[in-house]
Amino acid sequence: MLPLRVKSMPADRKGIRVDLQLVADMIEPGTRVLDVGCGDGTLLDYLVHFRQVDGRGLELSPDGVHACISAGLPVIQGDADTDLKDYPDDAYDYVVLSQTLQAMYAPKAVLTHLLRIGRRAIISFPNFAYWRVRLYLFLWGRMPRNETLPYTWYETPNIHFCSILDFLELCREMGIVIERSHVLDSWGVPRMMGRSRFLANLFGVQAVFLLRKSG
Amino acid sequence: MGVTERKSTGQAPTSLDGTGPIPGYHVRLGCDSPLRLDCGVELFDFPTAYQTYGRLNADKSNAVLVCHALTGDQFVADAHPVTGKPGWWEMMVGAGKVLDTDRFYVICANILGGCMGTIGPREVNPATGKAWGLSFPVITIADMVRAQAMLIDHLGIDRLFAVVGGSLGGMQVLEWAASYPQRLYTAIPIATALLHTAQNIAFHEVGRQAIMADPDWCGGDYLDQGKRPLRGLAVARMAAHITYLSESALHQKFGRKLQDRKAFTYGFDADFQVESYLRYQGSIFVDRFDANSYLYITRAMDYFDLVESHGGPTKLFRNTPVRFCIVSFTGDWLYPTPENQKIVHALNAVAANVSFAEVVSDKGHDAFLLDEPDFHRVLTGFISGAWERRQGHAAAQG
After folding, report:
1. B324 Cα to chain A: minimum distance (Å)
2. Taking 70 as the threshold, does the pLDDT of residue A14 lie above it?
3. Does domain B5-196+305-397 have CATH number 1.10.10.10?
4. A45: nearest CA in chain B?
5. What is the pLDDT of residue B398?
6. Active-site residue B332, yes or no?
7. What are the residue ranges of helices labelled H in B229-372?
């Protein structure tokens, strides 16, 4: 699978990571789903078996692709930065980009494709403005490394970090409607983003958004 | 039915080395209605040779058609009747293997234009009593697949569980999926392409010219003149063989090592091991292959352009119910990954159910014939997953 960009959150009772469970809970059963950057297929497998979705995946790493196909999941080895253009408009009900946006070469272009290909997009990413990250940079003057951001600056696949506020600003600029939004706090507990975006941006370790095009 | 079947009888076409009949199943197709070729010619009552492995189940849902490559034949998993060598895909087909014959009924037919018992230029034209030679009509991959569909009809099978093949075999798989989408559940094209590129055509043309430049080719009439263009066919094979291997595979196997000598001979003998190897490959190939078949089959491959022949990119594979699994190899420069990805992109464009994996291998195009554990693992997983789903559908409907 792609090098895990965010260290696993605690698993919940159903056996998948909390952030993946949040994504899964946004998806209506029986729909068509494309999971971009599907890794070893954990989420896709869950969706196919427990949500009865018609699921497809796109994954860059050979190990991830082999794992998915070996598990009977329809997954294509490819690069989201270059291959999404070959997918037709409105082909899927949901396109999921889980913990992958920050590793894209052109996140804005990818986001445009996701909402072209899918009627809705579900995006999750690590929040670079989480207070511990801020504190790390402030105190030590070094690029933050912790449990959720384990890589050194020179080997990280994460080349486009953003904060929750940055992402909200991009959505506003692109005219994207946010239907639902959640943050996960440092205990891995999901919370609605609520009214204070400032607090969400300070205390959210990760964010999950359900998006659609305006109009 | 207007077909007759016989197995290993004296009437079966004889093998190329003339040692006896070609073993296995032989059937005459096109007795009721002819095979209409793309070139306009109709073939009636023509021989087809095939092999099967495993047993067809009661509801005839476990049939897998294997399509062989340019110089392959129907002897997928048993000893070759001429060379005595193991079947070309024994690694893949058999009990407990990727195409598990305890579970699947595996069929492989010699392709139209071939030289192992199916009608082709070395078979006798009943109208003249002589070998067809160059009077045999020029065939296409779509024609090969039509002939296979007639065989599948003859076997009483409505829908194949899978059609599988590499290289030219993969092109047949793609043609099956495009022409008969309701007649196969899964398609597994391996190390192949949607069309033959200029480079592919160019290499084939070198091979054809080598054959036709051999005086023993006799304008294609060599069988009637008691000759065979062995040197030309061997050179064609040598040139093609280079394209089946990667540069690194050749380097690792031979480097610049000399053949049974310590120094150059300052002549044109096979000083280098790689020369000796190619000469050997050429020499054993002519024992089991017909020169005119080589011309016809390479021609069919050159004519292949699935997008063009199926109405353009928006029509090809539209609404296909077929589940696809495409595999390419990193070291393959004959049908490299980008060519395989074009198939994936065409399928994505119609939101088809498609899996694609690129397997890391330095063995070149021939990797699909060799022991590549990742390749076998991916195919096993895909086939098991699809088979479970197929069984699930059958249970839901029945």
Report:
1. 9
2. no
3. no
4. B385
5. 53
6. yes
7. 230-244, 247-253, 273-288, 291-302, 306-309, 337-349
